[in-house]
Amino acid sequence: MRHTIFDTPVVNSCFRLLSRLGLKLFGWKLEGQRPAARKYVIIAAPHTSNWDFVLTIAFAFCFRMKVFWMGKSSLFKGPLGGIMKWLGGVPVDRSKANGLVQQMVDTFHNYSDFAIAIPPEGTRSKVRQWKSGFYHVAHGAGVPIALGFLDFKKKVGGFGPMFFTTGNYESDLEKIQEFYQHMTGKNPKQFT
């Protein structure tokens, strides 16, 4: 997999220190354990503000993880495009179906270590239902789902239990969403 900020030696150490200090300064705490699996999909929820990205990157440094994340393709245009990729970004063109699930499944099959964060809402705006891509990527690749979270009310972020898909999307989604029912996003009215 490509080189990112997470495996840039001196920069990684500096950002880990800054992340710890920043989170502590603003009253945030880590909860849970870094997933023990070598490959997994991370649910990034609730996703209601741009601060979710900053905090997720900070928590990734604190947990000593190399994380890739999916973002809308417009984030990767212009001079910031290279920086976004260096931060672990994977551009997604949401305007058309382009076999992204299969591309991610293939990526999991091609690497021995790979973790990607996918916000199930697919946007910071309120949605009626979660998009199923995160589930189909995990199930198709045969990897678990790490229940990653940011709870702005309690100022904690981290990981809940690992979830293994059964192939019954509706039943599995109900169990996954139970974990998030008491989480509060930065903009609570935007979290389904």
Plain-language structure description:
- By secondary structure, the protein is α/β, with parallel strands linked by helices.
- The chain has one domain (5-190): 3-Layer(aba) Sandwich (Fructose Permease), CATH 3.40.35.
- It is 35% helix and 20% strand.
- It contains 6 helices and 7 strands.
- The protein has helices at 9-25, 51-62, 80-86, 100-110, 133-141, 169-180, and strands spanning 29-31, 39-45, 68-72, 89-92, 114-118, 145-151, 156-163.
- Strands 1-7-6-2-5-3-4 form a 7-stranded mixed β-sheet, sandwiched between helices.
- A hairpin with a 4-residue loop joins strand 6 (145-151) and strand 7.
- Helix 1 packs across helix 2 and helix 4 (100-110) packs parallel to helix 5 (133-141).
- The termini are far apart.
- The mean pLDDT is 89.
- The gross shape turns out to be globular
Order of the strands making up the biggest sheet: 1-7-6-2-5-3-4
The third-level CATH topology is: Fructose Permease
Low-pLDDT runs of 5+ residues are none
H/E element string?
Answer: HEEHEHEHEHEEH
- Quick one: CATH class? Alpha Beta
The share of residues in helices is 25-40%
Q: Provide the β-strand percentage band.
A: 15-25%
User: Over the alpha carbons, how many angstroms does the gyration radius reach?
Assistant: 16 Å
SS content category:
alpha/beta
Q: Based on DSSP secondary structure assignment, what is the total number of beta strands?
A: 7
Mean pLDDT: 89
In the CATH hierarchy, the architecture is: 3-Layer(aba) Sandwich
Count of individual domains: 1
Largest sheet: 7 strands, mixed
Number of helix segments?
Answer: 6
CA distance, first residue to last residue: 33 Å
